[in-house]
Amino acid sequence: MSDHHHHRARKRFGQNFLHDAGVIHRILRAIHAREGERVLEIGPGQGALTEGLLDSGAQLDVIELDRDLIPILNAKFAAEPRFQLHQGDALKFDFASLDPAPHSLRVVGNLPYNISTPLIFHLLNNAALIRDMHFMLQKEVVERLAAGPGGKDWGRLSIMVQYHCRVEHLFNVGPGAFNPPPKIDSAIVRLVPHAVLPHPAKDHRLLENVVREAFNQRRKTLRNTLKALLSADEIEAAGVDGSLRPEQLDLAAFVRLADRLAEQPNAA
Ligand code: SAM
């Protein structure tokens, strides 16, 4: 065996490689890629998921940051014309450069935990290209993504992701499925961008502002936390009880607040 088959997992790249065949198959079944589909894998590592994705007959692009993994991936998969390897940072990748048909791209990845939130936001900026996403994430993050109003998990991440996507927490994966085992539990999540937004905001940036302000101090009432943006009267006019705390509001209520803000003459 040549040297490049012995890759030592690197912590700074968030490398925890899947080695449990049962878990790998369960993930591949959940994704259920088909012949001719466009699939993008983020962080293929040593190819634990890549092999099954290619076997499905899909056209597969992969983005891997660690240069040392490139020869390993090429040795395994470059002979397959449906395989395309991109070396680089997924956070900077231009997804439109893959030129997928609208709502066609299927994005998958056992993500490095340190980049999962910014990466999801980067992908949501390109939601119109994406059919669905399947990710392995920290279980805590999946619980926040899938949360509903009223609990401690409901916050900025839940609201901004659910604005764009339907979220399904599919199943949990313990540390033993990985080499090396991470110190945390993981879970698989499915995100499906809405064909039509259920609660479209007049200005997406204003929704971001309201949600950020509201959750900056999640124990305070909305009347208090939103003081700099909206008066008590404006909050009432949006049909929201200003004495509630942010975690008690659903997405539709946050959108009503953002749309109120959009009506202010100096809103920007
Ligand atoms: N998919 C493989 C598996 O399941 O065994 C590897 C998963 S490992 C948790 C995360 C992978 O993402 C590593 O291969 C790592 O080098 C890669 N990675 C880390 N940061 C990245 C980034 N910014 N862009 C692309 N890939 C990245």
Automatic annotation (TrEMBL):
It catalyses: adenosine(1518)/adenosine(1519) in 16S rRNA + 4 S-adenosyl-L-methionine = N(6)-dimethyladenosine(1518)/N(6)-dimethyladenosine(1519) in 16S rRNA + 4 S-adenosyl-L-homocysteine + 4 H(+). GO terms for molecular function: 16S rRNA (adenine(1518)-N(6)/adenine(1519)-N(6))-dimethyltransferase activity; RNA binding. It is an enzyme of class 2 (transferase). It is found in: Cytoplasm. It holds the Pfam family RrnaAD. Residues 23-195 form the Ribosomal RNA adenine methylase transferase N-terminal domain. It comes from the Bacteria. S-adenosyl-L-methionine binds at residues 16, 18, 43, 64, 89, 110. PROSITE patterns: RRNA_A_DIMETH, SAM_RNA_A_N6_MT. Keywords: Cytoplasm, Methyltransferase, RNA-binding, rRNA processing, S-adenosyl-L-methionine, Transferase. SMART domains: rADc. The keyword Cell division does not apply. One of its GO terms (cellular component) is cytosol. Its EC number is 2.1.1.182. Belongs to the class I-like SAM-binding methyltransferase superfamily. rRNA adenine N(6)-methyltransferase family. RsmA subfamily. Specifically dimethylates two adjacent adenosines (A1518 and A1519) in the loop of a conserved hairpin near the 3'-end of 16S rRNA in the 30S particle. May play a critical role in biogenesis of 30S subunits. This is Ribosomal RNA small subunit methyltransferase A.
